[in-house]
Sequence to fold (992 residues):
Amino acid sequence: MSFEKLDQLGRRLEALEHALSILGADEATHMAVGGGEKRAEAMANLAGMYHAQSTAPEIAEWIEAAQPHTEDQQLALAEFRRQYLNATCLPTEFVERKTAATMRSEQLWRELRAVGDWDSYLPALEGVVELVREEARLRADALKLAPYDALMEQYDPGNRTATLNPVFADLKTFLKEFVPEALEVQERRHQRRPRRDLNGPYPIEHQRELGLAAMRAVGFDFTHGSLAVSHHPFCGGVPTDVRMTTRYRTDDFLSSLMGVLHETGHALYEQGLPKEWSHWPLGKARGMGIHESQSLFVEMQLARSPEFWHFMLPLVQLHLGRNALPGWDIEDVLSEVNHVERGYIRVDADEVTYPLHVILRYELEQDLVAGKLEVSQIPEAWDAKMTEYLGISTINDPKDGPMQDVHWPGGAFGYFPSYTLGAMIAAQQWAALEKAQPNLRDSVRKGDFTGINAWRAEQIWSQGSRWSTPDLITRATGEPLNPAYFKAHLRRRYGD
Amino acid sequence: MSFEKLDQLGRRLEALEHALSILGADEATHMAVGGGEKRAEAMANLAGMYHAQSTAPEIAEWIEAAQPHTEDQQLALAEFRRQYLNATCLPTEFVERKTAATMRSEQLWRELRAVGDWDSYLPALEGVVELVREEARLRADALKLAPYDALMEQYDPGNRTATLNPVFADLKTFLKEFVPEALEVQERRHQRRPRRDLNGPYPIEHQRELGLAAMRAVGFDFTHGSLAVSHHPFCGGVPTDVRMTTRYRTDDFLSSLMGVLHETGHALYEQGLPKEWSHWPLGKARGMGIHESQSLFVEMQLARSPEFWHFMLPLVQLHLGRNALPGWDIEDVLSEVNHVERGYIRVDADEVTYPLHVILRYELEQDLVAGKLEVSQIPEAWDAKMTEYLGISTINDPKDGPMQDVHWPGGAFGYFPSYTLGAMIAAQQWAALEKAQPNLRDSVRKGDFTGINAWRAEQIWSQGSRWSTPDLITRATGEPLNPAYFKAHLRRRYGD
Fold:
């Protein structure tokens, strides 16, 4: 009876989520420019209904009284309890205070980032960090976790600094040595074989066809999703109707194509979630790190490999014409898509330097939450780490330094590690998969992803939120998170 | 305080309406085919929330206790009360029974209409009519109206058979004589000047540009709306983001163009509603008859006139090319778009014969609701009227006779008169406008619709639901509904 009540509540919440997801995707793709204000008002109201219905006090009683009959029901109930606790552990008064402060802070950041005015932005960020410290303590008390762990718990349940810190430290040590090595290897390759220029323009309609062909090839189900255009590419919508977007530049098709493949990785996960549990927390994607591992599996493990391009290059010529890449062979494409470069901006970074951007933030935000670092000290700390890790200074450039990301202005602390966690999990999954399917690379060369997707569907997608992030990794790959696989992947692709 | 409660309730209801409207438009335009089941489930849940929130018992107390301070607030409260009464006058048990029955009946109709199997469909429609009779009695008791008037009240508040019956009788008498006359005039014109053939193919992308140009010209605001493609054209969305659709045939651009202009008429009304009241019933469009008058004003009064084509023909050539209509002049276009023909199907009818299709249904459904006609007698009654009004028999063709419309299978009785009411109101508005702006036709020839739209915005659009349908007609045109204007319009366009 109580289980049935939770089931019915789940259907109402799923309806509101459905509306919010589709309205969100629609806003970025098809909404008229003047429709934004009412859209925001409508979505705020729907989000309010969602919050009220999902945190109602009687739910606690239903959860306590519910009697699961199967293992799945038991897991579903446990995950419902976990989510309910996470959603209700902050007092309403605090949530309102934080929402108001982060909204103001984000608006101010958008304005001041453009002109790189750190000093004027400082007080707002100090306010946010103060609230985040308070939030971390509140969550920590309710969840019986350390403060920063309690923040991470929102994004990747089960992640703990005690496990992650050694992994990230190991990876950092490796990368500080490996980035110079990879750059040297790249330099030698360029001397042997100079980089080629793209031969645009590439008409958008043709790029779109190429993107659709790539999506189809790696397993996107077009009866349950579509591709549109938006300013910032994303993968949204609902599992039965995944809304993917990309953007096009006529002088370069690779950026859109690789972006499409990244988002297709997210989409496959959503399309593969267990449908019978779609209205329960159990039926949702596990978390940010696992989600990123699915997009990076497609984008990095698959789509930047020589085997993939063996299959993809003819498709490019089919859709963009024989002269799309005149004289290029697979090695030229790989040199282009796997180009390594030290840079200021995280979102523009390649897979070799990217983790260092993340580790820098992960280290700083732990110190910020613990009170070991104050906001006013960020620019110097940022510059010191950028200089140490990547050999570039940001001291006079806050815009491309600590002001570059929306996460901190929006109060989202504990999220950054998920990105690099995703890259490591993707490499570990590839290794496990290759052990299970020794002919893996041959299949990729033929454009046959059925075996790969069957494995991922079984090991990851269909598992929904049955297990914590660390447990899911162990169950899928046979061992806990191990940075060795990601390091081996980088060595293989970028090393000597 | 109570007024404030109603205001807040209105904002929540507007959010749910917003979601339902955009999800509905999205379903017909951008949804993946496999997304339908979850979409239906989500929309049913959201509609359930809307119903529960809009019919909550405490609202009755808020309405009674609310103290309006302005005339607008007074009108807003009155309209809220009227809508609340209409929404709550049926017992939940009855609503559930009717919903289930009409859903089954509609599904069965879709199946059996395709094969024209009236006999198998009969029992389902008998069940629906029985429920509609019960509904009419329940509504009549609650609203202190005659049963059929109580049904019409849902679609055009204030419409009464006592006023409409003489108007429709007058129009019927006129049309029974006028249709043969119009056909004769048309025949003579064709002898003088034979009909020309269209010179397709007309590429869809060019047709789209032409449609957008036509929308822009007659005043559609693209910052608050857009045009997409769907199987059945519609005008949906919300006033700040109107979602219009059309469909294209490459062998004919006129059907899409005239459809676009029809939907633009609906869209202008929505875009012109009073924004400050958008979350109150007062701020919504008045009803079906008035809405149809706005679409027919653009489609029939404007867009099938010689003055409009003086301006439109060059636009056609601009977007479709010089040879789009080789050798055609305005008279040829008018002969094409104003072609009169006796036919079986209401939705395919021209503006001369259309009202007879409606009057037939209006007469039959009054008798059905009153119990003077039984469902089993419909085919003969339908045939008799079709033969009398249009000289064609449907006795052996139920598919194109009484099975052609979704209204009765869906339990929507009292709706049909709105279509012809709309045509009459549109003609009456044009006449009133021409009295106020004697140079009206000159402006149309120049493609200048600003004066026309300013008048309509003031007289109709900005009025929202302040007045009943009859009161709105009188306030806007200076007199009650008068069929003389529509008859004069037909005589002018189709007579000798």
